[in-house]
Amino acid sequence: MKICGVDIGNSTTEVTLCDINLLNKDIIYLGSFSVKTTGIKGTKDNVIGIRNAINKLVKNLNIKIQDIDLIKINEAAPVIGENAMETISETIITDSAMIGHNPETPGGYGLALGETINLEYLNEIDINKDYIVVVSNKFSYEEAAIKINNLFENEVKIKGAILEEDEGVLLNNRLKIKIPIIDEVSNIDKVPLSKLAAIEVAEVGQTIKKLCNPFGIASIFTLTAEETKKIVPIAKGLIGLRSGVVIRTPQGEVKERKIKAGTLKIIGKNLIEEVDINTGAEYIMRKVNKIGEIKDVDGEKGTNIAFMINDIKNHMSEISEIDTSKVKIKDILAVDTTIPLKIKGGIANETYKEKAVAIAIMVKTHKLPLNSIKSILESELETPVEINGIEGVMATIGALTTPGTKLPIAIVDIGGGSTDVAILEKTGEVKSIHLAGAGELVTMIINLELGLNDVSLAEEIKRNIIGKVESLYTLRTEAGEVKFFDKPLNPKLYGRIVVIKNDKLLPIYKNITIEEVVKVRRRAKESVFIKNIIRGLKTISPMGNLHFIPNVVLVGGSALDFEIPNMVVQELSNYGIVSGCGNIRNSEGPRHAVSTGLVLHYIERIKIK
Fold this sequence. Notes:
Protein name: Diol dehydratase reactivase subunit alpha
InterPro entries: ATPase_NBD, DDR_dom, DDR_swiveling, DDRA, DDRA_swiveling_dom_sf, NA-bd_OB-fold
Low-confidence stretches: 89-98
CATH topology of the largest domain: Nucleotidyltransferase, domain 5
Strand content: 25-35%
Number of domains: 4
Radius of gyration: 30 Å
Number of strands: 29
Largest sheet: 6 strands, mixed
Domain Diol dehydratase reactivase ATPase-like: 275-602
Helix content: 25-40%
Pfam family, one: DDR_swiveling
Strand order of the largest sheet: 10-9-8-7-11-12
Domain DD-reactivating factor swiveling: 93-254
């Protein structure tokens, strides 16, 4: 009898086919296959992915679908994970009061202070004044160099320059007197003229010191204590940068205002807690843990968090075909982070780092339309389909085929939208829990913290190591190892940070260091994966004591990550737990735990009969 186990996951759909001898209950595993899940887990759209996976598997085995006697589908947990980011505050600059800028290749170095003047209009120049010259793209760097050198010869005190084009180095190389130059100012027309400005450019490998210090800016512009307080957001935005410019206009001002992110109302069985998103992740999670089992969560009306919650519930209502009132939020994960935000009112798309809270929410309904999937498959494949086997239970049964494991055994399955944790006791009792927050949240944090605006690239950074192209023939990895190439690399990659994906090098077009990327990536994984694993294991372990769990097996696609298993082993070793990446059936690695468990579960059922 040939049985096919089908596991519909958030990201992948996995199938395992085996041949069972009904007389002696012996089992022969014929093979496994996985494809990307089509549609949202547990919906009719999954049929396409299931059909594709089974078709490819039987083709590899040189058999027909009609040879399969039974298809078993897991009872896909009716949960959907959603993520959002809420910033704590926002900086707005009115009337171009102060700006901060950090082009990749400024010219010269040093600190310059002077009055802004347009290179195009040089009337009424006062040789007793210091000037910062503003150069639009109407001038080439050669034309600008000639004009500025003429000003030098006429004893005009040009102390620095602001350029629209990316020509700071080219201009500086042609000047008789070296000055700090800021370039790549896209909105050059917004630079206020005849106003006092300060430019600072650090030497290569250094960062600016004066303009990133509120009191440094206050010293330059002779600010009062109240005015100094207002320019803190600008100083904060220039920390760690190689160059910056600050311009003061009397009528302008900098405002830092609080955004109404909203208040969460966490409803438990016997307790209701309210918590403001702006209090940060640690305080939010303290409230979540205090509640225990969450019945539902609401957001303060008219706020960002309320809009997010309503959108998620409406979405779940549509796919599960039930009333919105029956859709309940069962878990929340909050993570503190920092993200680059554009300063409104700036002149060169300036950004600054701001605190934010990343939020993952898991929604649950009473059921998913699995019977519809069953009917469609039976009609299309002409094969009986059976739906049973709770995900967590099936995963633990499948994980037991990993050599070196024993009961009780716990599994951790980190998916795209949620993290599943389950434990199978010696008595056969199974406890499981679905937690909000998983791979997609990590990707979102990486994308936003690094300011990539590219989810695909953030996903690759999450999954692969990075390096820096140091020459056309060498690349230094994040571990410090040097890789040599026989053929020259693409010149466009020179000096770039790249993602090393197999034989491909994916460039990261951002002015960031290897250390920064690695720090963000690891911190995101620790904040989401490790935090969730610990709180999940505490929930299902006897008396909440992790020391009672001897084995933890990582299953699912995230267990293939190049650093997650080691991070988990290191953390759980503190509790005396033997943990590691699963090797299902001693051949599949961490994949196919649920689909294998479905088959084994069927065998146990017929043994009992």
